[in-house]
Amino acid sequence: MTNDDFAAGLRAVAAWFETHPEIPAPSGLRIPVYGMDDTKESVAIQIRALGNAKKEYDNDFFRLTREFGPIEVSIVSYRTAVCTARVVGRKTVAAVPAVPEHDVDIVEWDCEPILDQSEGEQS
User: Fold this and answer.
1) 10 Å Cβ neighbour count for 75?
2) How many domains does one find in the chain?
3) Short-list 21, 68, 60, CA closest to 38
4) Rounded to an integer, what distance in angstroms lies between the CA atom of residue 41 and that of residue 31?
5) Residue 81: which pLDDT band, with cuts at 50, 70 and 90?
């Protein structure tokens, strides 16, 4: 699917909602964008295109989300593409049924800005 095809589909959905007021609008919508090569360079291109957006991190993923009214566009990349994992210690996890006691790494993430501050990225 091309961006033009996707945009045409969004316009068709918008027109349908406008002509059917008996149908309640969704309470919110997040459009996830995947599929880039997940390099710092490709994520930087996406950040520039998205503009002012909110950053979110979890153990595995980095998300950059911008609101367009009630609709959010969220660019999703693996956290390892934009951050560096640093093991800062180890801890022992107690045994539970079917899982013996074991050690796991304690990891902190170094997430340096992808863009220079002069290019508009917020920390």
Assistant:
1) 21
2) 1
3) 60
4) 22
5) confident
pLDDT tens, position by position, 37-46: 777 888 888 8
Q: What is the mean pLDDT of the chain?
A: 85
* Structural domain that includes position 96: 3-119
pLDDT at 115 over 80: no
CA angle, 14 as apex, 70 and 9 as ends, to 5°?
A: 110
Residue 66 · residue 26 · CB < 8 Å: no
Q: How far apart are the C-alpha atoms of 18 and 78, rounded to whole Å?
A: 37
* CA dist list (Å): 28 to 10, 24, 71: 15, 11, 6
